[in-house]
User: Fold these one by one.
Assistant:
Number 1:
Amino acid sequence: MPLARSKRLFVALDPDDAIRAGVAAAVAELKRAAGPAGRALRFGELATVHLTLRFLGDVAEERLDGVAAAVKAAAAGSPPLALELRGAGAFPSPHRARVVWLDLAGDLAPLAALVTELDRRLAPLGFPPEARPFTPHLTVARARPRGGAPGLAAVLAAASAALAPLAWRASSLTLFESHLEPGGARHVPLLGAPLGGPSSPGVELASRE
């Protein structure tokens, strides 16, 4: 009996090239401000930067059509979002950073409503809402030490003051497949669903071969 095939999926807002260029400038400023302390951080590939709304994990291929329909329906019920990248921070704290991120402002209430609607659409398919509350952020680096990178609080504060706000109009949801490879994760878009576009069927799922 053949093994069931699956894909590792997540749903995200995918920045355009202009936003990626702004993120690259912000990352360069973070590296400059960090100096030697930046060696404790592993900065991600800018081509893969995205705002994750929901991680689904391994999903059997026979469930893909249902997931795609849920993503399109959630997107259709949300207006495009006027967001803004501003400042930087870290989880769990700037004093012992494990994840370094760029903060978001703007249409955060509609963004949270979109995540709630996405959860509502996905729950009947076997994807219960995540236990942790949604905290919008754009991850740009992770700590190399297992316990987190120390001494970045002042760096993040200085970088936040120096970073110019970056306007981001998010107009679609993207369903991604994530491939974990030795050189890092590779993300393949499977579906693009326009926000506030009930008349559009979205981009068809990519090849499943």
Number 2:
Amino acid sequence: MFVSFEGLDGSGKSTQAELLRSRLEAEGENVLATREPGGTELGEAIRELVLHGGTVEPWAEALLYAAARAQLVAEVVRPALERGSTVLCDRYVDSSVAYQGVARGLGLQRVLDLNLAAVDGLMPDRTFLLLIDADEVEKRLDADRDRLERESDRFHSCVDAGYRELASRFPERIVALDGSLARDELADEVYGALRERS
């Protein structure tokens, strides 16, 4: 099974992915956890560039994320799925659609099509979208912020709108959950939703 976690910066994606990994491994499942951009040598180099480099034009940004994703799928995700592992990914295609397609104004469908080509159509079986208010982002992030985390409240509101549109378009795949819940309560909701739909 392929599972992704999505949401605004500070929504708890990384924490919930780690909690689910621990729970599934305790049940004896073989789990591979990865993140985007990253997870490969190329992906980590692109991560450094897009999150901590200088100015990146919107289409350059979208293409860099797609390149990192293509490498991750070919090198890590697909081989793990073929071995029968459960793959948990902290961000995936939906991030690019929300951030670059909607918030950067490149077009939801154009960025989705670009990424579907990059991953040869591989989409998660289940995506957990952790929803928090855009104004909550400011409170949850520490002072050491990357290039995207430093964006305006308006930008984060556009990303949130993009995620919500994706959730309404793909309800069979995307499970939207309240990211303001207590950590363990949210973890139980993630686990319960995963098992319900397995």
Number 3:
Amino acid sequence: MQNNISKERNLKKQITEYFLSNPHNSYNQAAKEIKCSKSMLSYYKDPIEARRQILARSGKVEFPYIWRFCFEKKKAYANKKETFTSLNKKGRTFIYACSKSNKKGETYMSKKEKLLHKNVTIKECLNKIWPGLEVNEKISCQSIHPWTKQLDYHDDGTPIMSPWTRSALTGEVINAKSSKTEVDHKDSNRFNNHPTNFSFTERFANAMKSDLSYEQLYKNCKLIIKNYERHGK
């Protein structure tokens, strides 16, 4: 938005009219006569080229990540309210390779064609966590440990019952219905929808794992821990 002084000077009009009348004059001469900087002349005479040069000099093209760190305003992380959904819906995200960040051009049918296993049911997946659990969840069932495959218990000896289970990554007891809990493909291949590849973990842990295998995540975490113990404390 122009201020009053800028409106009174109306440099854009002055510069345009000047070069129409004096197309061969130099920028130095024009700047003296109009009483403005050469950068202003360049901007108003050819704004597209001026913006290109400004962008090039800013480092945004050559160093986009550094530029964004220095100049781009980041939105504050949203403190999302915890919500809850059915285990049935969580199971669908697994067997149909659902993803919040679908690749461009990716559709339900194109993802379905990539699935490694056909006719997998949600009940089969849920039963890998809670043996005997029905999709309607009318009867609660005891969870099994994601690693030992034995019936799992809280520290006080009481059974861990659905929708509660143990995180495959952190070992914490979590509510699988919570929006803070995500379905995790153990081998990180979201098209491997076999029930044995089905597990639950916290959102933050799943984000850390990303497309890594458990072994790769373990090795990366060891590197971070080693570096932090050496320099962070």
Number 4:
Amino acid sequence: MAVSMMNSKAPSNDWKPYSIDENDVPAYTLPDPLLQEDGSPVSTAAEWVNMQRGKILQLLKDGEYGEILPRPDSLRFELLSQRDDALDNTAIRKEIRIHCGMENGRTIAFDMLLYLPKKASGPVPAFLGLNFKGNHNTTDEDDVQCTGYIKPGVLAVETRADQVKRWCFREAVRRGFASATLCYHDIHPDFTQSEPYSAFRLFFTPEQYPAIQDRYSVIGCWAWGLSRALDCLEHEPMINPSRIAVHGHSRLGKTSLWAGAIEKRFRMVISNDSGCGGGALHRRKYGENLSQHFEAHETAGIPAWFVRKCRDYVMREERMPFDQHELLALIAPRPLAIATATEDYNADPKGEFLAAKAASAVYQLFGSKGLQADEMPAPDRYLSGDVSFHYRTGKHDQTPFDWAHYFSLGERFLK
């Protein structure tokens, strides 16, 4: 039984969200991911992989996430520290600096925090995700180095252990998984005019910075960082490189979806409360919309996360030649998990469910059943499969309840 969200009041914002009353959702038609430009249907997995997938990927590049940044000319992984009695002597903890360089001398480096189960008998599967407040806020171990710099010498967050429950490192290790994280600010600070401190500086000169958003996005830059972290994990002998899941919450859930779409090395993709520009359908015009990511962000000092072309669709989402179910479809046939929350009104929980359901048509080409539900499920019920979904009671957050589902899916798909 679905929980009604009608007549709920939206939180006050300085931007203009759409209504969160289902009665106000307009009539809309979603683009059919299995319909080619000439009107012919895609009927096999081979046709999807060889013809249709690339066309939809290009639409999403052009209109939302931008082109894919190239690999750096050089990569080097520096072990900064190792502790063999971490997390009450259950884990091995490593802090690794990922050095990226170009032949022209430009460089950037960012630090990854990695926990490995100490008693593992062989290479283990791993979870990888970006964090908001620095590695030192994902764990209660107070000797972890601070990360998350908005510019040299200036941390975004100086406190410690603020978001331990969002990471559940102890439970990951207990269940036999490695878990790794790095701060998104160290790849591209989430502030305007931060290109000099971001990975964009590898590929562009200061004179080119104003034009970056024509072809590339901040979310794309964060996703690039996840690929470099994946490169590093592939060199860790205690990790199975073919069994790594990417995950993210909120704007980093948007990032994990794009990273999973463009980086096929990720074995499983997890989106937690990603909303607009993530797992929710644009055409429903429910709750959060693109105006937040352009007009409101500019006044708040936050960069637009999407390419400049995406601005054309603010309050005109019906003009998009794609929608988010097609982003989710790009992950097929790999396992996909979408999670949302009952009070996360602006992220449109029902729109996330409907996107996952619509993406299932592509999964079915590969013999998968996709999302096995026709109606929005009751809160706190896990729907588990190649396309998974759950609808947690509560607010915009990532919690141990969410992780319980992700670990269960990891047991099924990563082990």
